[in-house]
TrEMBL record:
Record has Lipoprotein as a keyword: no
Cofactor(s) this protein requires: K(+)
Pfam families in the record: MMR_HSR1, MnmE_helical, TrmE_N
Source organism (scientific name): Simonsiella muelleri ATCC 29453
Record lineage: Bacteria, Pseudomonadati, Pseudomonadota, Betaproteobacteria, Neisseriales
Note on how the cofactor is bound: Binds 1 potassium ion per subunit.
Protein name (Swiss-Prot/TrEMBL): tRNA modification GTPase MnmE
Gene3D superfamilies the record matches: P-loop containing nucleotide triphosphate hydrolases (3.40.50.300), Probable tRNA modification gtpase trme, domain 1 (3.30.1360.120), tRNA modification GTPase MnmE domain 2 (1.20.120.430)
Recorded name of the encoding gene: mnmE
Function comment: Exhibits a very high intrinsic GTPase hydrolysis rate. Involved in the addition of a carboxymethylaminomethyl (cmnm) group at the wobble position (U34) of certain tRNAs, forming tRNA-cmnm(5)s(2)U34.
Positions annotated to bind GTP: 228-233, 247-253, 272-275
Length: 457
């Protein structure tokens, strides 16, 4: 699809607030007349900065700065693109944007510049999504992987996979089209070997995508346990700051306390919950309700247990409220008071009353054993560490790859007399892969994807 005849769009491309420089971005068709009206007749050379006044309808100066003109199709969107780089005050930027609207532009929708780049075949859908991922990156590792996707490394792998799928489909279709021939196209071309290679190729991409999804999405960890067992102290120790109030009074945490930390580039959303217990305190009840909601949406629960009390009635009530499929790590805190050494023990399923597979003994006060906990958290989500082959991936990418893998597995199970079925499974696998780069994508999905971008991008 081409957006050549789409209306001119304009937006403030810099973040809101006070700054040294503010940018207005425009995209549309034949924008040189537009430029002349806002500069008083000056005509810029493509890709050459022009220092000029930006004028209102009466020829009075709104602001002055640099004007950059990118002629179609050599621009980000594939259309004529203008950037007005002036001073970063919000009032002057709004005045300049209003002038652009007076000259016929309209306010750009969220992500519309990137959407036009996609529709004009400047980038594919995976690259378009990486623009938003780069802006939202919460760690250096995530930013590096977003750049890889933006430069097309993820897309190139998908394109190669699709090309190989098409080659195999051609062989299968040839067998279907010429059944009277004695030549066995599939056997002579080693179709089974090509299919096995495709399965291995897809499995490798899927593994990297799963790791990339971990880096992009991170994980949510809730701290649960009886009141005054040390949840807030552990949160503060992991965050490296006093984000939660710590006292000897049970029930000090009356609401969920949230903090994000980063482990090996992975964003970890930590939630210190109000003690899950029965209470008549109205405020504490609200906090407990929020805690229960946080537990339902969590990936991992850190269950703090006081070794002196063990799994008592209060702790059993908390464990009863946890979802059965929630991953669990048991924490025995305050080892400094018991003169114990930090320790991590794995593969304890069934032997711990908390239902956890891993036990960590640590001291939130001294920090002893915190590294063991951090390693256990990364292990629970399957993080294998950053490598050059990784790229950020979204849930829709994983779903598409898993669908393609499912179809290739079904194709591998087809017998010699099920050529039509084999052809259909290969076709569905190709369609699933093509959804990632946008070669086959429903319009409603595009609307959802680009609506999550910021204005001006």
């Amino acid at each position: 699809m081409n957006t050549t005849h789409s209306p001119t769009i304009a937006a403030i491309a810099t973040a809101s607030g006070r700054g040294g420089v503010g940018v207005i971005r425009l995209s549309g068709k034949d924008l040189l007349p537009f430029v002349q009206r806002i500069t008083g007749g000056k005509i810029p050379k493509p890709r050459t900065a022009l220092y000029t006044d930006f004028l209102d309808a009466h020829g009075k100066t709104i602001d002055n700065g640099l004007l950059l003109y990118f002629a179609a199709p050599a621009s980000f969107t594939g259309e004529d693109v203008i950037e007005l780089q002036g001073h970063g005050g919000q009032i002057v930027l709004q005045m300049l944007l209003q002038r652009c609207l007076e000259l016929g532009a309209r306010i750009a929708e969220a992500g519309e510049f990137t959407k036009r780049a996609f529709l004009n075949n400047k980038i594919d859908l995976a690259q378009a999504e990486s623009v938003a991922d780069l802006i939202d990156a919460s760690s250096q590792q995530a930013a590096r992987m977003a750049i890889r996707s933006l430069k097309g490394e993820f897309s190139n792998q998908i394109h190669q996979l699709v090309e190989d799928l098409i080659t195999l489909r051609m062989l299968v279709e040839a067998t279907l089209d010429f059944p009277e021939e004695d030549i066995d196209f599939l056997q002579s071309a080693d179709a089974k070997g090509k299919l096995r290679a495709l399965q291995n190729q897809l499995a490798h991409i899927l593994t990297n995508a799963q790791q990339g999804a971990i880096l992009r999405e991170g994980m949510t960890v809730v701290l649960v346990g009886a009141p005054n067992v040390g949840k807030s102290s552990l949160l503060n120790a992991l965050a490296g700051d006093d984000v939660a109030i710590v006292t000897d009074i049970a029930g000090t945490t009356r609401d969920t306390v949230r903090e994000q930390i980063t482990l090996d580039g992975i964003p970890i959303h930590m939630i210190d919950t109000a003690g899950l217990r029965q209470t008549n305190d109205i405020v504490e009840k609200i906090g407990i309700e929020r805690s229960e909601k946080a537990v339902q949406n969590a990936d991992i629960a850190l269950i703090l247990i006081d070794p002196d009390n063990g799994v008592n009635e209060t702790t059993r009530e908390i464990l009863f409220r946890l979802p059965e499929n929630l991953k669990r790590i048991e924490i025995q805190n305050k080892i400094d008071l018991r003169n114990e050494q930090p320790e991590r023990v794995d593969n304890l399923s069934g032997s711990l009353k908390s239902g956890a597979d891993t036990l960590i003994k640590l001291s939130a006060k001294t920090g002893a054993g915190l590294d063991l906990l951090k390693q256990a958290l990364l292990a629970q989500i399957g993080w294998q560490g950053e490598s050059e082959g990784l790229f950020l991936a979204r849930t829709r990418h994983l779903n598409a790859l898993e669908t393609a893998q499912f179809e290739l597995n079904l194709a591998a199970d087809c017998g010699h007399h099920q050529i039509e079925l084999l052809a259909e499974h290969l076709r569905l696998a190709q369609m699933a892969c093509s959804e990632i780069t946008g070669e086959f994508t429903a319009d409603d999905l595009l609307g959802v994807i680009f609506s999550r971008f910021c204005i001006g991008k």
